[in-house]
Amino acid sequence: MTATRTEAPTIAPTRLADADLDLLLLIRHFELALLDMFGRGELHGTTHTCLGQEYVPVALRPLLTDDDFVFSNHRGHGHYLARFADPHGLLAEVMGREGAVCQGVGGSQHILRDRYLSTGVQGESVPVAAGVALHLKRTEPGRLALVYLGDGTWGEGAVYEALNMAALWGLPLLLVVENNGIAQSTPTVAQLAGSIGGRARAFGVDHLRVTSTDTEVVRAALTPVLRRVRERSTPYVVELLTHRVGPHSKGDDSRRPEEIAHARAHDWYARYAQAYPEQFGVHDERQRAYVAQVVADVAGRPASRWAEADRG
Ligand SMILES: Cc1ncc(C[n+]2csc(CCOP(=O)(O)OP(=O)(O)O)c2C)c(N)n1
Ligand SMILES: [Mg+2]
């Protein structure tokens, strides 16, 4: 059990701007709709939801510009929606329908759009992002490359090779670690010796651990970090202690019932609903209805077609 990973559920969340709340709820309802469609046999392949972790990309959204690069992972719907607010394109991608961001060949995990790239291969993004950060340092100073990765991905050697070069070369590389305490079915304590902070510091890379799940608090903590990465051209590791409210993928949750209940007790969604019922009720209903429309629209489209000429 991970009782002290994040602040106690009794601390009231900060009231959010409507736009932030809408984005949180868009991600939430988008992913609930995906799980629902999988349950009804309407989707194929796989998907990993970020239920409970939506606040991370929402907190980061205003701290990034379109000129920064974002590298996402297997659990990337929230990262994509926070960057593009494009549920139609993402759902079409997952369903293989017309209007898909990558013509339906990438699916849930492999998306390329402008300066956004996701991969389902754990750790792959870190060296790629280090290379991009080197390019940015040379040609577009002040811009950064951000990589989202999980706690379990610190088992990949490529992460350390990239951190080493990023430290040596002073690269504007920001690693955002969504530490949800588990990697598929393996608790972090069973696979990670030492700590993420200790590993970052071994390379002389700064590390900040954030335990709040409050969008505003997380944003305030990250604001000086991004400024520093940009201004000093230096790598940084930010570790956010978070909770995976849903299964690893669609229905595969190996945790004990009390562990799942613990994650749910820390879920921002229920806590925010309780703290601000009026604001929450209006926006929750609005985003739920919007996602239902998106699903109806995209499900009614013909299959997407791979066209070599459109590859861009
Ligand atoms: C190189 C590689 N090995 C194994 C997998 C299978 N896999 C997908 S997600 C995952 C667990 C990832 O855990 P973590 O990094 O903590 O991210 P989380 O799923 O908790 O967000 C594994 C083992 C993979 N995608 N890539
Ligand atoms: Mg994890």
Explain what you see.
It is a single chain. The chain is of the alpha/beta class and 312 residues long. It is 46% helix and 12% strand. The chain has twelve helices and nine strands. The protein is globular, with a radius of gyration of 19 Å. The model has no long low-confidence stretch (mean pLDDT 95). Thiamine diphosphate is lined by residues 74-75, 120-122, 150-153, 178, 180, 182-184, 244. Magnesium ion is lined by residues 150-152, 180, 182-183.
The SSE order reads HHEHHEEHEHEEEHHEHEHHH
The share of residues in extended strands comes to 5-15%
Q: Are there runs of 5+ residues with pLDDT below 50, and where? A: none
- What is the β-strand count? 9
Amount of helix: 40-55%
The major β-sheet equals: 7 strands, mixed
Ligands bound, unique: thiamine diphosphate, magnesium ion
Number of domains: 1
Sheet with the most strands: spatial strand order: 2-3-1-4-5-9-8
Structural class, by secondary structure, is alpha/beta
Would you identify the CATH H-level superfamily? Thiamin diphosphate (ThDP)-binding fold, Pyr/PP domains
CATH topology: Rossmann fold
- Please identify the top-level CATH class: Alpha Beta
EC number: 1.2.4.-
Protein name: Putative dehydrogenase E1 component
GO biological process, one term: pyruvate decarboxylation to acetyl-CoA
Pfam family, one: E1_dh
